[in-house]
Amino acid sequence: MSGFDNFNTDFYQSSYSVDDQSQATYGYGNADNPYNKPYGQYDYSQPMGYSSPGMMQPQQPYTGQIFQPTQTYTPSPSQSMYSSSFDDEPPLLEELGINFDHIWQKTLTVLHPMKAADGSIMNETDLAGPMVFCLAFGATLLLSGKIQFGYVYGISAIGCLGMYCLLNLMSMTGVSFGCVASVLGYCLLPMILLSSFGVLFSLQGMMGIILTAAIIGWCSFSASKIFISALAMDGQQLLVAYPCALLYGVFALISVF
Amino acid sequence: MRLRNSSMDGSDGSQLFEDTSRAGSGSQTGYRNQQAGPQAAGFPGQSLLSDPMSNLAMAYGSSLASQGREMVDKNLDRFIPISKLKYYFAVDTVYVGKKLGLLVFPYMHENWEVSYQQDTPVAPRFDVNAPDLYIPAMGFITYVLVAGLALGTQNRFSPELLGVQASSALVWLIMEVLAVLLSLYLVTVNTDLTTIDLLAFSGYKYVGMIVGVVAGLLFGKPAYYLSLLWCCVAIFVFMIRTLRLKLLSEAAAEGRLVRGARNQLRMYLTMSIAAAQPIFMYWLTYHLIR
Questions:
Q1: Band of the pLDDT at B96, cuts 50, 70, 90?
Q2: Alpha-carbon distance A8 to B63, whole Å?
Q3: CB-based contacts of B69: which residues, under 8 Å, 6+ apart?
């Protein structure tokens, strides 16, 4: 069964049909079209190359040999427990990876820009918090009459992509895209403050300009602080803070104008 | 669906699926598992993973994904040499500060040579004369945003205009680099200037452009012209002093008068590259300040 280890495209056609003898059919209506798929979401029967579906040989025991590669797949103990009954499954939030305590910790890190950040907090890429912040930002913009979710989404996508390229080029260790998106999303929190101010007061006076500048500085400072500590870059904090400031400046432009 | 299960096999009629970690379950249970697999997909994913068929599909899919990723990386490396690019981004704050100062005021700097370390140029972090790509990249993006701001104050702003500005500046940059490459080829200069070096040098003019436009936005047209003039002269001197060491021969670079058609041609080439910078700087900014 050399084909199994290689996972090349010939795999299904050549080797699988040999083992096809042992498990030909699903046993539902041999008269039916063997490719009839009552379960719409699963069409693995087709790529599996069931060339002889009509043959059913129950005498040959199902050795499970074909699934050799997956025998090395060791399900974590929790999973084999979970498969046993519905009640043992993990709570929904844990399964989705949303950990409110961590979200709160990261939020606090953003809100205290002067405090040194711990590099390990960004080890798990958590996009739930940033999603909430983006939606809150869009909501506060909506409150001041600007329906600009599209711009927020587009700018954050382009900005995350740009920061991802830049950080990968500048740092010794690379970053994943999820980590960049997560950090930038968390540091959007002060911008929500700015746009909620914008609901109540106009931001186009001198006060507004000073507030905008201060908030942009706050956002980019905490973002660069987290990046620096997570990626162990030295002497480059201002260099990382500047593109972050440009990105948040564009967000501020949307809030102000 | 349930009916089929129980009618088909007498043994485990109550369970929807079979735990295949048990060896020798028999062919029937194997089939049932496959059949029950899609059914059980309605449940949370653990039953999905215990189905060996979908295990296989997942493993195949992930290996396909990693193969695809390898292919992308390999091809990307062919077009854009990532490791070479990383050299140009190995900068730190002190370097950037000094370089920006040099771009605006190059008159006091004396030693313009790039230091080498066993045949490879030293990273920009350690040598202020080495070219980098951080400043040109940030300069380009800042230029596009400042252009948007300037157009906004004249009430001519729309997001499409940002894209137009960005693409036209990029096109001019690419054309300039190609023209310099062509002229270097025609003059047959033996130099270790790479394409990325030329890109970096051409990108340094954005700093002067930004200074000019910001001054014009804050203080009006005379300030724009004054600061642009200052920056044009500064970048002219900067380019001459930097390129002189790279393009001219040793003797001519030291300033001694060396006759000969080749050297003259090289000197003209250096001067024309340097003179092109102020022209571009004016061309790309004059329409932003009205």
A1: very high
A2: 10
A3: none
What share of chain B has pLDDT > 90, as a percent?
32
Other Cβ atoms within 10 Å of B81 Cβ, number: 13
Element (H, E) at B121: strand B120-121
- State the nearest Cα–Cα gap between B149 and chain A, in angstroms: 9
pLDDT, block means (10 residues), chain A with 257 residues: 48 48 44 45 44 48 51 47 64 72 79 72 74 87 82 87 91 86 88 87 83 91 88 86 92 81
pTM across the whole model: 0.68
Nearest CA-CA distance, residue A202 and chain B, Å: 18
B222 φ, ψ to 5°?
Answer: -60, -40
Q: Give the gap in angstroms from C-alpha A82 to the nearest C-alpha of chain B.
A: 7
Amino acid letter for position A115: K
- Transcribe B223-290 into DSSP letters: HHHHHHHHHHHHHHHHHHHHHHHHHS-HHHHTT----SHHHHHHHHHHHHHHHHHHHHHHHHHGGG--
Interface test with B, best of A1, A36, A37, A44 (most B CBs within 10 A): A44
pLDDT at B245 over 50: yes
Candidates B233, B217, B237, B216; CA nearest to B225 is B216
* A80 DSSP assignment: H
User: Tens digits of per-residue pLDDT, B162-205?
Assistant: 888 889 999 999 999 999 999 888 887 778 788 899 999 999 99
Q: Do B92 and A249 touch (CB under 8 A)?
A: no
CB contact (8 A) between residue B54 and residue A25 = no
Backbone angles phi, psi at B117, to 5 degrees: -130, 100
Q: Is B22 exposed, middle or buried (0-12, 13-18, 19+ CB in 10 A)?
A: exposed
